[in-house]
Structure formats: structure tokens, C-alpha cells
Amino acid sequence: MFEASDSMTGQPDTCRAIRELIRSRSLASLATALPASQASDVAWPYVSLVLVAVDHDLSPILLLSDLAEHTRAIAADCRVSLLFDGTAGLAQPLAGPRVTLLGRATRTDDQRLQRRFVQHHPDSEMYAGFRDFNFYRVSLERAHLVGGFGKIRWISPKELRGGPSLPELAENEPGIVSHMNDDHADAVQLYAGRLLGLAGDGWIMTGIDAEGIDLRRGGDVARLPFDEAMTAAGQARQLLVSLVAKARAA
Predict the structure, then answer these.
(1) Considering the entire predicted model, what is its pTM?
(2) CA atoms of 124 and 65, how far apart (whole Å)
(3) φ, ψ for residue 120 (rounded to 5)?
(4) CATH second-level architecture of 167-249?
């Protein structure tokens, strides 16, 4: 549950809550500027719904069709905004949290980013290799938080990202995820059922970063944050083992 302070001064706990909100979403609203055309002599704002994954440094990763209007817009103007909405299920949605990330979208051939996206969206593997689909990375320039009524502020990428980057964890992530799903599926199920109270079998791990793990079952996604963020990549195994013990004791 997102809880922002009344002063909204950007304390670490608030920024971590924002990161958890962003990482827990598999969809985002993408805003681009449609270029001027014969039908219109000015650019128009255009909003669409996209699948999204975020990298370890919170840079959004997108897989877009060359035929989509938003892709054509990005080709003309790479500035984009992505809205991550955390208000679902609230009686008063405008009292809930949402974060808009502003940045520039550029095509990327980075295999690690592509793997991370496909891990989070397994069905995308069917079309990720099509010639008219390409991956994009959004380099963050700033973020805008609305944490509820009167709880509004701009946040810099440095402030939002928080702790140190762990490039070794990012490189080892595919192996960790595969190992957990292939050899420790029972542990992943314990994370989902015992620690998050999620129903059903067949949950899989789709990602791990310094602050938590991502899970999926069909179209449902979930986020399990760590009590304390990792400060070194080598802590991953110990943390995952400790979560199993915690789940069995629950």
C-alpha cells in the first residue's frame, strides 16, 4: 500500500513506495505527440495503452510495432510520458497514487533489456522477433508524483532511483529467474500463496531486482518487496532462501 507523507519532501521511504508502484505495474498509459499532417497543421497529444517492464535503474522498456501511431509519433519526437496508475479498486481513485515518468524513447538492441521485457511478458516472445516490432528504452528525465489530494511534487531521476545500482545482479537475473522457476517452483508458489496471499497454482518468477521479486500467473502480476534492499548481488540467494523459511513459518 502506497503511503506518502503530508509534506512530500521525498524521504527514502516515499521514493521506495513510488518505485514499488512502478515495478508492480505491467501496463502503462503512453503519451506521445502525433506529428502534424495534411489533416492537421499542429501536433496533437496522443495516449495509448502499452505493455511495460522497467529496468533495474527504473528505465521503462517497451516493445512497439512500427505500424502503431505511438511509434510513428516517437520517430518524429522521442519525448514521451508514461503514467503508472495505482488507484485501482479505491472508492475514491483521485485520492490514490499515480506516477508519470517523463523521458526520451529510443530503439535499443540491448539483449539484456529485451530478455527482461520478455521475462515479464512471456506471451510477447511470440512476436518479439518480428521485423516490424522493436524494443525501446526510455531514458528518464523527471517524474511527477500525485500521491493523493494535495500530495503532488516533481522528483528527479537520481532522487527516485535511490540506492546503488547492481550491474552484476542485472546480468545474473535471467539465470536466477530460470533456476527458481525450473528447480524451485514450490518456493515461488510459497512466495505467492503464503507471503502475498494469492490464490491459485502456477505462479512464476519474472524478475528480481535489489528491492524485490516480480511474479506472474497468466494475466495476473504481483510484486513481493524485500524487507531490506540488497546492497550486493551476492545477497540474492540468501534472501530467496530466507523468504522460503518465512513463508513456511507463516
Answers:
(1) 0.92
(2) 12
(3) -75, -25
(4) Alpha-Beta Barrel (3.20)
